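Hi C.,

You asked whether I'd gotten around to modeling the 114-residue construct. I have! Everything is below, sequence then structure, no commentary in between.
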Amino acid sequence: QLQASGGGLVQTGGSLRLSCAASGGIFRVHAMNWYRQAPGKPREFLARITTDGKTDYSYSVKGRFTISRDNAKNTAYLQMNSLKPEDTAVYYCNANRIGYVPVWGQGTLVTVSS
């Protein structure tokens, strides 16, 4: 129900845009979130956008990453700028709504070379 894409290999300082395509039934009523998980580390929250466009970011990415959503395309995005080697991880999108089980996408790998 969620399909993440856009990962790849990028050099330090580069940019990538991740996409998360959702079914319309999920997208319209769920907040969309991005998480990541680096090898040997727990999954980390990165950013959230509510159905009405309010955003929230973790301290580690605020000012470098931007979350957005296109309601016409049922797609959420994560624009990642000024990438660092420590941003290397599998990135996951998530749809959540109070009272409902969160929905996870399959993950997309981002590798930042030094």
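If it helps when you're writing up: The first helix runs from residue 24 to 27.

Thanks,
B.
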